[in-house]
Design a protein that fits this description.
This protein is an alpha+beta fold. It is built from 3 helices and 10 strands, in the order αβααβββββββββ.
Length: 200
Amino acid sequence: MNRRRFLSRLATGAAGAALPGLLFGCNRSRSAGVDRSAAPDSTRYVSPVTDRDLAVHAFDAEITKLDKPASDWTSVVSEDAYQILFEVGTEPRYSSPLLDEKRRGTFVCAACHLPLFPSTTKYESGTGWPSFWAPLPRHLGTSVDNKLAVTRTEYHCRRCGGHQGHVFGDGPDPTGLRYCNNGLALRFIPESESLPDLRR
């Protein structure tokens, strides 16, 4: 699939939202304003991750959404992480230790521990936030974000609904996409360690 067709499918899957490469960074707003009702699930995403990544995350076919209020996560994540995950906030640029994380492993949701990105899709975007060119298939949901002058595509953990960041069309090959993620919304699990138990 060529880049133009891929971007067209992504935009269609996000209710026609534009992917403005002109907006350099992630959302800086601390107020909620994301229309999650308009967002379909992310089964339309085609994530060109490696066969090895897919084998490691073989359980990704069925993800059950957790039926719990956002307030229940206050005892699980820090106050700053909660503001990002469940109040759609954004951490300061260059503040995340994950910017320098170069080991093989998996980036999981900081709240519910659902694997979101394999380390093989992380790259240095120069934006000051951890960036990835593809997520694990079906592990993210998307929504239309109209808080700024230009419509953007917000993405969130498909399991707990925690806000992760925004996706833009100025990333590297093979997808041409940049998933601009808040570091506090993620936890890194090295390849040498077992992934967290999702039963919670």
